[in-house]
Amino acid sequence: MQFTVVLVVLAVILLLVLFFFVFSSLSLWFQSLVSGAQVGLFNIVFMRFRKVPPK
After folding, report:
1. What percent of the chain has pLDDT over 70?
2. Which of 11, 13, 42, 44 has the CB geometry, 3.0–4.6 Å to 25, for a possible disulfide?
3. Angle 3-7-25 from CA coordinates, rounded to 5°
């Protein structure tokens, strides 16, 4: 029972971190969508992981 609780807590933490990265990149993704650039949302998120300035 405890292993399941630990697993659920870790999954929730991972989802919150992923949500933070996606949510923080939404405005930049929308800006690229409106300007016609062919950049996907996950490309912008992964740019943050690679420490490339997405702007």
Report:
1. 96
2. 44
3. 170
